Amino acid sequence: MVKYLEHYSGLYREDKGSAGELYVRSESVRDRSGLFNWQINPHVHTNLFQLFFITSGFVDVKMTEGTVRLSAPGIIVIPPGNVHGLTYDPEVTGHVLTLDNAYLEDILQPVIHIYNNFNTLICLTALDEGILSMVRQIDAEIFNNKEDRLFALQSLIGLLFVQLNRLNVQARFQTNMGGLNEKYFHMFQRSYTSSRPFSKSIPDFAKELCISTVHLNRVCHTVAGKSASLLLQEHAVAAAKKLLAHTSYSVSEIAYQLNFADPGYFARLFKKLTGKTPVEFRKELAA
Prior knowledge:
Layout: E1 6-8, E2 24-28, H1 29-34, E3 39-45, E4 48-56, E5 58-63, E6 66-71, E7 74-78, E8 84-88, E9 93-100, H2 101-107, H3 112-117, E10 122-124, H4 129-142, H5 149-171, E11 172-173, H6 180-193, H7 202-209, H8 213-224, H9 228-246, H10 251-257, H11 263-274, H12 278-286
Parallel strand pairs: 1-3
Antiparallel strand pairs: 2-9, 3-8, 4-7, 4-9, 5-6, 5-8, 7-10, 10-11
Helix pairs in contact: 4-5, 6-8, 9-11, 9-12, 10-11
Protein name: Helix-turn-helix domain-containing protein
InterPro entries: AraC-bd, Cupin_HpaA-like_N, Homeodomain-like_sf, HTH-like, HTH_AraC, RmlC-like_jellyroll, Tscrpt_reg_AraC-type_HTH
Pfam families: AraC_binding (PF02311), HTH_18 (PF12833)
C-alpha cells in the first residue's frame, strides 16, 4: 500500500505546471526514466494525462492497493488523479505522451464517452504498429511549424484515443487497485467538470457522494494535494480562459456567465491562479 504520496501539477519532480490548454509533450521512456535511475516514486498528476507505450522490457506499476507488471508490448494509460509509481527494467524502450487534461477533454468532446472510459489507470497488453505510427506522427507534429499544425495534432490525438478505446475492449489488463479516496475523487471530478462553475456548492457535491464536506476535502487533499474549493476555482478559471480566447465577451460578461456575483472578485481570483489579469491574458493571446 502507498504510504507517502507526492503531488505535481507538472511532470514528476518538476514544479512547473503544464503550459496551458495546448500542452502536449513527447519523449522517450528511456530519456525520462533514466533521469531517476529507473525508479519513479508513487505520485499524482493533478492536471496531466499520460500514455506510456512500452516496446521492449517491462514496467512494474505501483498503485494504492498493489503492483502489477506490464511486459512489452503494452500501453499504460494514466489519467490525472490516479496514484502511480513506476519501476522500469533498465533495458526498457518506448515512448511517453503527456497531455494537458483540459486540452484532451476538448478534443474528445464529440466522443466524450471515450474520454470517460479512461478515468482510471489502465494497462493494455497489446501495442501494434498502427498505434506506434500515430505516436510518431504526433511527435513529428509537436516539433514542426507547418501550416495547420494544431489541427493536425488534435486530429491525430483524437484518432489515437479512438484506437486505444477499441483496444481497451480487447486487451485490458485488470488494474483495479486504486483506493477508495481515488474513487471518491474521480466521482467528484466527473461531477464538477460536467457542471457549470459554481452551480453546486461543496456540500452539494459531498451529498452526491454520500460523504461529509470534511471527508470530501480530505479526499481532495490526499489525491490532488488541494482543497475541494481550490479545485472548483481552477475549474472556473479554465472555463474563463476558453471564453477569453474564443469569444468577444467582456470580462464582466464572462464573470456573470461563470456564476461570479462580483466581476472584481473574478478578476482577482483569475490573477491569483494564473499570474495575469483576464485583460492581460487576452492581450497575450492576441499578440
